[in-house]
Amino acid sequence: MNIHSSLMIEVKIMDTPGKRDDIIRVALELFAENGFHGTPVAMIAKKAGVGAGTIYRYFENKDVLINELFADLERKFMVAIEDGYNPNKPIRERFIHIAATILKYSISHPLYFRYIEQYQNSPYGVSFRRDKLLGKSDDHDLLRELFNEGVAQQVLKDLPLPVLFALAFGPLIAIARDHILGFSILNDTLILKFVEACWGGIKR
Amino acid sequence: MNIHSSLMIEVKIMDTPGKRDDIIRVALELFAENGFHGTPVAMIAKKAGVGAGTIYRYFENKDVLINELFADLERKFMVAIEDGYNPNKPIRERFIHIAATILKYSISHPLYFRYIEQYQNSPYGVSFRRDKLLGKSDDHDLLRELFNEGVAQQVLKDLPLPVLFALAFGPLIAIARDHILGFSILNDTLILKFVEACWGGIKR
Amino acid sequence: MNIHSSLMIEVKIMDTPGKRDDIIRVALELFAENGFHGTPVAMIAKKAGVGAGTIYRYFENKDVLINELFADLERKFMVAIEDGYNPNKPIRERFIHIAATILKYSISHPLYFRYIEQYQNSPYGVSFRRDKLLGKSDDHDLLRELFNEGVAQQVLKDLPLPVLFALAFGPLIAIARDHILGFSILNDTLILKFVEACWGGIKR
Amino acid sequence: MNIHSSLMIEVKIMDTPGKRDDIIRVALELFAENGFHGTPVAMIAKKAGVGAGTIYRYFENKDVLINELFADLERKFMVAIEDGYNPNKPIRERFIHIAATILKYSISHPLYFRYIEQYQNSPYGVSFRRDKLLGKSDDHDLLRELFNEGVAQQVLKDLPLPVLFALAFGPLIAIARDHILGFSILNDTLILKFVEACWGGIKR
DNA sequence: CATGAATGAGACTTCATTCAT
DNA sequence: GATGAATGAAGTCTCATTCAT
Predict the structure, then answer these.
(1) What's the CA gap between A36 and B16, in Å, rounded?
(2) D55-114 per-position pLDDT tens digit
(3) Beta bridge partner(s), residue B156
(4) Do the Cβ atoms of C131 and C181 come closer than 8 Å?
(5) Rounded to an integer, what distance in angstroms lies between the CA atom of residue C126 and that of residue C137?
(6) Can you tell me the distance from the alpha carbon of A82 to that of C180, in angstroms, rounded to the nearest whole number?
(7) Which ranges in D83-153 belong to alpha helices (H)?
């Protein structure tokens, strides 16, 4: 019985995270493709190969799933951005790194991108965004630091942070969306040019 | 009797379209605030002071209402842009006019802006956008002409049109959203500076 | 003004009965084709070229329209049957006349037939039928007389009236329906044969 | 615990199909009595003691329920007819068996009969009937064989099949309806006489 | 009288969530 | 823990009927 129990525990340890991940992965795909309201919980359950009730063991309800999934994706973006980021490099280089990473990562993970866009333009996202931007958050701290530094060193235009953000990342979001929807096609050269153009928009 | 008759005609002329407009106005407001799925038809009817069935006299179904409302808003943007637009002015000036108009109009009509954003990031909007961008449309023709001309005259960077669009309007959308959500505050000076920065992003 | 008024009155006199007939005719057609519940009042109004409200000037409500229409059709059948009916002819000849008339009339007025069938197999028809058959009615009096006479004269089988009715008219209804739905095709020879066979079913 | 387990299994086996059957049974009753349009899904659910949504687990929509119910009833009629049918007996005897069975079964299952009649005279039934009669179907094959054989052996009149069908079964349907609606009362003797009379209508 | 826009009760259906197994 | 059948609140839409014009 001891053996049996420990076995079950092991099974749980190994199996449970797998199940949660299955749900997350499938939910991401379906939400990104069909929208939040076009994706019943039962559809996620079926495609994830779990019972509908199981989803409620991992997420209190559908809204929580949607919100946690968004948090997951943000975290993934942060990891991508921080990978290879060197705070000792010049402002320009650091910006190029961040911007290029965001664009490349968005393009190579179209589901992530579409999910985030959808989320941010839904009632879910707005309140979240409000909480977030007014408070603190890691990724923005990184960016905020970079931009504050840039302004202080007179490398960047002397504009409010949100304005600089808009100038720098607005085009990025726009072109990523176009690419993902197939309205334009980016390659590495174009990406680099594009990012440099973004830099042009904020540098003094 | 003449007077009475003409009065009756006036009442008809003023009243019937009034009902359709009430619905449109209320629907815009509620959709922009609560999202498409957060706004039951019954809620629109109640707030518009009409019976639920009445909405279906003017719009075949909820989706049609959503789509027509979007078309309405696009038309309004177009009207705003075309007002004061002079095709004989230099490229730069024309661009500044368009960009400033879009930004000002978005800011002074936050419901319009939020509705459009929401629409374009929903299953409704994606297919529509696809049809639209690949085909022809008045507003884009205007912009397309302007940008093509700019590229030909070597006033603008030699980049694909969608890339120029992204560089020029991506920041605009971003800052408008921020302003509307209260994350940053724009004034006329800032708007002008901002628009000039956008120009900086695309001019050669 | 006198002239004007009398004109209007004339118009009314000529127009009003026409309007009622239009409604009746269109309602018959639509009900027969789409069923009672597949035919909104508004559809009848539109096809009849009248306002929806007008129908309610001639018929208290939809149910009344349906019932009156049925009564109309029954009357028409009676007229057809009585035309050429000679109570002095032998039983057999009289029956042949009636049966052949019913069959021919049904076939040449498929809408009438389908309406009646539909009516009799709906909640409308059942209660009506109950009222009717238990009471008296012209057409059945004619038939009842004929059949009673036939039984009394020992020309017909000695069976209860409803049984004789079923034997005599059951096949008629069945073949008429088949013909109208296109499952079998009758010509005058076949009709005569058929009616004779029906006679064979009840004659002693 | 063994006993308990087996009990639980039994409950499942007995209960789940029980729910579908409850729905079918109640739906039959209500449709037969009130008509298809006089019977909201909610009414069926309530009387069957299930939630409204449950009906949609078993039947895609109301129409499917209506159609499947009809198919069910047809199957039941076929089973009744085939029970005791002996293809080696003479034509006459076989016909008498079939006709008597149909009549008796109709009379003892008035709800089945009324449901079928209603169905066949509704938009549901007409298209179905068309598909059916023009194609092949078990019960009609049985009858078709019998009648073809009868015609070939010169036992039956030399008439098209639909005509023979009408002569043979038209009276049956008519008298069954009368009986069920209480307009005439059949007993076993009368049934036999009646069926023999039907035979008289088709035999040479 | 005629009209048809307006109404709202009520029908069908979906789906987030629960809970017995 | 896992399951998925069951639930019923809530949403979309239709249509018989009314009534101001």
Answers:
(1) 36
(2) 999 999 999 999 999 999 999 999 999 999 999 999 999 999 999 999 999 999 999 999
(3) B203
(4) no
(5) 16
(6) 79
(7) 91-108, 110-120, 123-134, 138-152
pLDDT of residue C138: 58
Measured between alpha carbons, how far is B66 from B62 in angstroms, rounded to an integer? 6
Tokens standing for residue D123: 């938009």
Q: Is the pLDDT of residue A7 over 70?
A: no
- Packed helices D110-120 and D123-134: angle between N→C axes, nearest 10 degrees: 90
- Once rounded to an integer, what is the mean pLDDT over residues A110-131? 84
State the pTM of this model: 0.87
Q: Which residue is nearest to nucleotide E4 (CA to C1')?
A: C51
- Closest by CA to D178, choosing from D112, D121, D110, D120, is D110
User: Which stretches of A109-160 are DSSP H helices?
Assistant: 110-120, 123-134, 138-152
**Rounded mean pLDDT of chain A?**
87
- Assign C99 to helix, strand or coil: helix
For C37, name the nearest residue in chain D, comparing CA atoms only: D37
Instruction: Give the CA-to-C1' distance from C13 to E3 in angstroms.
Output: 19
- B85 at the A interface (CB within 8 A)? no
Where chain B has pLDDT below 50, the residues are 1-15
Q: What is the pLDDT of residues A147-168, one digit of tens each?
A: 999 999 999 999 999 999 999 9
Averages of pLDDT over each 10 residues, chain C, 204 residues: 41 61 96 95 97 96 96 93 94 96 96 94 76 56 90 94 94 94 90 93 90
The residue type of C28 is L
CA atoms within 13 A on the CB side of A4: 1
Element (H, E) at A80: helix A62-82
Residues of chain C in contact with residue D118, where contact means CB-CB under 8 angstroms, are: 121-122
**Smallest Cα–Cα separation from A31: which of A97, A92, A157, A117?**
A117
Establish if D162 touches chain C: CB-CB under 8 angstroms. Answer: yes
List, in order, residues 6 or more apart from C101 with CB less than 8 Å away.
Answer: C80, C81, C83, C84
φ, ψ dihedrals at D126, nearest 5°: -65, -50
Please identify every stretch of chain D with a pLDDT value under 50, giving residue numbers as ranges.
1-15
Rounded distance, CA B21 to CA A143, Å? Answer: 45
Whole-angstrom distance between the N-terminal and C-terminal Cα of chain B?
70
A chain contacts of residue B130, beta-carbon cutoff 8 Å:
181-182
Is the Cβ pair A167, B38 closer than 8 Å?
no
Residue B197's identity, in one-letter code, is A
Whose structure tokens read 């708007």?
A: B191
The integer distance in angstroms from the CA atom of C43 to the C1' atom of F14 is 13
Question: At residue B85, what is the residue type?
Answer: Y
pLDDT at A10 over 90: no
With beta carbons less than 8 A apart as the criterion, state whether A171 and B201 touch: yes
Q: What would the DSSP string read from start to end of B17-28?
A: HHHHHHHHHHHH
Nearest nucleotide (C1') to alpha carbon of A55: F2
Q: Using CB atoms and an 8 Å cut-off, which of residues 22-61 of chain D contact chain C?
A: 34-38
In Å, how far is D55's CA from the nearest CA of chain C? 22
Tokens of A75: 């975290």
DSSP character string of C138-187: HHHHHHHHHHHHHHHTTSB-S--HHHHHHHHHHHHHHHHHHHHHTSS---
Instruction: Considering only CA atoms, give the Rg of chain C.
Output: 20
Measure, in angstroms, how far nucleotide E16 C1' is from residue A52 CA.
Answer: 10
Task: End-to-end CA distance of chain D: give it in Å, rounded.
Answer: 70
CB A170 within 8 A of CB B175: yes
pLDDT over 60 at A6, yes or no? no
Rounded Cα distance between D144 and A93, Å, is 88
Q: Rounded CA gap, D110 and D32, in Å?
A: 9
